[in-house]
Amino acid sequence: MSSNPGSGNSAYDAIIVGGGHNGLAAAAYLSKAGRSVLLLEKLEHPGGAAVSAQAFDGVDARLSRYSYLVSLLPQQVIDDLGLRIRLARRRYSSYTPDPHDGRNALLIDNGDAAATAASFAAVGAPESEFRAFTEFYAGCRRLTEALWPTMTSPLPTRSEARTLAARAGAEEAWEAMIERPIGDSIARSLQHDLVRGVVLTDALIGTFARADDEDLQQNICFLYHLVGGGTGDWDVPIGGMGAVSGELERAARDAGAIILTSADVTAVRPGGLVSYQHDGAEHTATASWILANVAPVVLDRLRTPSRPAAPSSTRNPNHLREGAQVKVNLLLKRLPRLLDPAVGPGAAFGGTFHINETWSQLDTAYLAAAAGTVPDPLPCEIYCHSLTDPSILSPELQASGAQTLTVFGLHVPDRLITADNNDRRRAELQAAVLKSLNSVLAEPVEDLLLTGPDGQPCIETKTTLDIERAVGMPRGNIFHGGLDWPFVEDNAPLDTPARRWGVATDDPRILLCGSGARRGGAVSAIGGHNAAMAVLESGSGGSGPRESAPLESGRVSRD
Description:
By secondary structure, the protein is α/β, with parallel strands linked by helices. It has 3 domains: 10-50 and 241-317 and 480-556, 3-Layer(bba) Sandwich (FAD/NAD(P)-binding domain); 91-125 and 325-411 and 418-462; 129-231, no CATH class. It contains 19 helices and 20 strands. Strands 1, 2, 9, 10, 11, 12 and 18 form a 7-stranded mixed β-sheet that branches. Strands 7-6-14-15-16-13-17 form a 7-stranded mixed β-sheet, sandwiched between helices. A two-stranded antiparallel sheet has the order 3-4. Residues 309-314 and 542-559 have low confidence and may be disordered.
């Protein structure tokens, strides 16, 4: 093996295409297990969408630009790789103003059940609604606690997963979340339009779907939003999302992985041959294993560069699903005043701030988008990273009271965006987001925007096309395609390590190791972990200079 990956042909045990957080995780696991690893990243830095960036020129604030919160990153991965990551738990789960009267709102306070119950009454929910809401999520949690440990183990079958649910007393939750449209259970369990909407949002983020869709894509999205840690808590990464990918990069480099940035992979060919461009020259490298930390559709293009329209090599129609969101980052002088006099901004923005996301509003917005128009009002969710973790701001900005806001607009499918209309749509969507926010605020959010040294307001908007162009997610899909159940059907073949770990393609030497793998999606490192486990379980490709570490219960043992 050449010590310089940029000179001549080089051979490795594994080549990882794409340096997002999953690729870094796979590189760290394989390198720790004694495999020689080359990771090739197209951008100038690793991390993919899990990065922090100075979004506004001359303004010392590092925003988690594309991904914001952490729920699905297993403690097992943190421990295995020795990651120095701190995650802060948010006291408040969510705040949702009544769109008909913003002076009233639903505040889910994890630290005060009585206050939460009073909040249900404030928005006009029936007396029984708070209890029904609590019982609904308690049932969901019994199921997620049963399924969470399987995410870093070989795939269970549907029957095996259902047995785990039954043992946990989660049979009813299994029926509600796995077998029937989640909208049926929400509508049957809850009565209030706003309360139903708060629950339904977890089934829709990043997914263009309705509550009662028969393909159950919304159910899978709902499960993934609740399964993290078994509890469904979404935590703030201290230092921003870049701190997470930065630690994964450190672990991979410390273990001996070679990470090459500004390395644009141009082809993945049979026999483990990878072609890439670096420093203005063409290079090739070979490996026993190719791990694709790019979306499956992108892998297809690399495997058939002369036929970019070739069908998916993994034959999974989910991989072609469109993204369905607009993302807006803002830097404010301070948090805005609310119409609601009973709740301070610190509590309202301390969790997820839902805007125009009642049950009926979400469905109306879906129908509008399906008809080809931007929804009005646009359902939105706000996250305020700096309120929990001010370290992403300079001391001067902290002292001034500045705060970040990140807005996630729902039901904005990629079909609304084209190369020709992207600039116009971006402006239209930004205006729609600001209008939606202002509908529940006591002052226009535009008046609170900080300005950079260039005099420009600190706001940036990313359409699905912008996201695809920036970080390579086809059609702006934040999951690299549609999500899959974290189990396989009973008749699914599980005869190879790659199939057992949910990372197989139709080429036994090429594995998915990113969000497009089964059990991929979100910042979790699960795709990377599982691809590495499949390689190590195969027992082949150990030509690197270090001894292989044995497997124990799906983990790399540490000396």
